[in-house]
Amino acid sequence: MDLYRISVSKDGNQFAAAHFITYGNGQSEPLHGHNYRIAAAIWGPLDDHHLVFDFVRLKREIEAIAAELDHRVLLAADNPALPVERSADGEVVVRSGAHRYVFPVRDVVVLDIPNTTAEMIAAWIADRLLERLAEDAGRLTRIEVELEETTGQSAIVRRDLSG
Asked: Span 15-24, mean pLDDT?
């Protein structure tokens, strides 16, 4: 049986965002940003039109996810070393050791991940992409998302979706 894969890696699949990660010793790196680029690949059988999936739709879904994250501060919901609080006056407060960061809620995306590493952001993007492709996800067999945070430096998550 033939295996088919399509992939999308376009300039429009980019977003700029700030983040900081924590390390096992309780330290965090300084708040900083990247110009991220998303690439994705999906595997599956051909449909009635002899396609694994429509390139245009896949590109649009990736662009929509990039737009959700663009020009935001990315914070991890599940990181005890960087507790995230929402204040009553529409702010997000993050503590990192002796440092306290305050952001307008509109400038923050709190991701359901343990750390805002490239690996975990790539996994979050894969989950979000599968949500957006839900009507077709049942016939797909694998998804791969690559998140490049700078030229030549990226993380890849690959998920087997069959069984």
From this structure: 92
**Is the full-model pTM beyond 0.85?**
yes
Q: Pairing state of beta strands 142-150 and 153-160?
A: antiparallel
d(CA 58, CA 157): 17
User: What is Dmax (Cα atoms) for the chain?
Assistant: 59
Q: Kindly give the pairing relationship between strand 91-96 and strand 99-104.
A: antiparallel
* Total count of domains within the chain: 1
Containing domain of residue 55, as a range?
Answer: 4-71+117-160
CB atoms inside a 10 Å sphere around CB 93: 13
Q: Report the CATH number at residue 145.
A: 3.30.479.10
Using CA of residue 148, residue 67, residue 71, residue 95, what is the dihedral sign?
negative
The answer as to whether 151 is a domain residue is yes
